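Technical annex B. To support the medicinal chemistry partners, we prepared a structural model of the target in complex with S-adenosylmethionine, based solely on the information shown next.
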Amino acid sequence: MSETPIPASSQAWSQYWSAGRLSSCPGPDDSNYQGEMAACWHDFFKLRPVRSRVLDIACGNGALLLLVRQFAEQQQAQWLLHGVDRAAVQVIAQLRDADARMLSGIDMHELPYANGSFDVVCSQYGIEYGRFPDNLHEAMRVLKSGGSFQFIVHDADSTIAQRVQLQLQQIDLLQMQWQLFDKLHNMLETELTKDFSRMKQRFDEAAGAAFNYMRDAQRQAQDISLIEQTLQQLGGIWQLRGQHGLESSLTACTQAQLATQSLARRLLDQQQAMLDRQQVDDWLQFLRSYDAASTLQALHSGGHALGWVLRGNDRI
Ligand SMILES: C[S@@+](CC[C@H](N)C(=O)[O-])C[C@H]1O[C@@H](n2cnc3c(N)ncnc32)[C@H](O)[C@@H]1O
């Protein structure tokens, strides 16, 4: 029997989580979800019974589970925490000794749990990465009858959606338009041949175009951080050649290009997971067949949209 291949997006997420990051949309210093987001989870969890089995769908490295664990301590609750993700995730240190079980390689459309296994099913920027309505159907299958759920999902009008789009545009310029990684690679490879000066000229022209673009974009206060970082990185790779030789600079160039491709794969996955008003209304209608009183709320912070909150069976 042939095994299902791991989707490219899951490989990209696995790489992201392997660096030990806490969440997919971290605050400063890779801190956990804060402010309105954390408050929204707190409002939901403060009503949950003292003994509950909780499932976090598409849990990543456990950012939400960590929040829930902190609430459990505050409320002296004994919640058994489970998390699943299709990518390879890491159990962060703060969760290792807790009652938390995180499973990698689990597709949310085929959860390895019996019907009605959980009192609470939740997800933070996770369940919308699945296929509607199979994702919700499976989540509701493993939820006990009358069990509570809350999903905070991406909003197509959010600052996250805008950032994703801007970063994808920058990657497109770096890789497709200027082809900076390929040109640096060619230049390094041909250093000892007669073609070198031609290759160097091509790289310099492309880097010049990138600098001009940055200058114009800066005037319009446009986000060009990724281009800026990449140009610095490429400069570092070129210097590496002088210090550690050609092989290490070629390896570094290939790695930098692969890392950018992996970032692009993740960003595309995020872009596809953004829900507009019509889509989220469809989700709400679907969830209302499980709990007629399910609610939808737009989550904001300082005038910026953070996501949609879908909640059901929000009773003690
Ligand atoms: C934006 S991240 C969010 C992770 C985490 N909830 C957080 O807030 O940090 C989206 C996650 O969805 C996972 N994912 C995407 N498709 C999935 C699927 N079909 N089944 C399970 N997990 C999936 C990805 O691997 C990734 O870890």
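Notes passed to the chemistry partners:
Residues 159-270 form one domain.
Residues 47 and 315 are 7 Å apart (CA to CA).
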